[in-house]
């Protein structure tokens, strides 16, 4: 009887940890290795956000979480010998479950802030 009680307690503790992980917020980051390349998930971001990438736009959808903001960063460039930073776009999506990033070119990174 004592063994069953310990197993039930461990199972409840594990279930609570999994529930807290599912409800907590976090960042899902995607990065490209070089200009013109597709974004690749960093640290399991592909398990939270799914991307469908074209040459100018990226369609994204969540796999359970709700996206509260998307930050897209472009590749740095130079003009007349001066180094310029990459373009930066910050968005709050109207629909937290899917959207489109229309960046005009393949970006260097995209960060999705998620909750739940």
Average pLDDT across residues?
A: 82
Q: How many strand segments? A: 10
Can you count the helices?
Answer: 1
Radius of gyration using CA atoms only: 19 Å
H and E string: HEEEEEEEEEE
What does this structure look like?
This protein has 116 residues and is α+β, with helices and mostly antiparallel strands. The chain is 19% helix and 43% strand. The protein is built from 1 helix and 10 strands, in the order H-E-E-E-E-E-E-E-E-E-E. The strands form 3 sheets. The chain has a 5-stranded antiparallel sheet, with no helix packed on it. A 3-stranded antiparallel sheet has the order 3-4-9, with no helix packed on it. It has a two-stranded antiparallel sheet with strand order 6-7. A hairpin with an 8-residue loop joins strand 1 and strand 2. The protein starts with a helix and ends with a strand. The model is unreliable at 10-24 (pLDDT under 50).
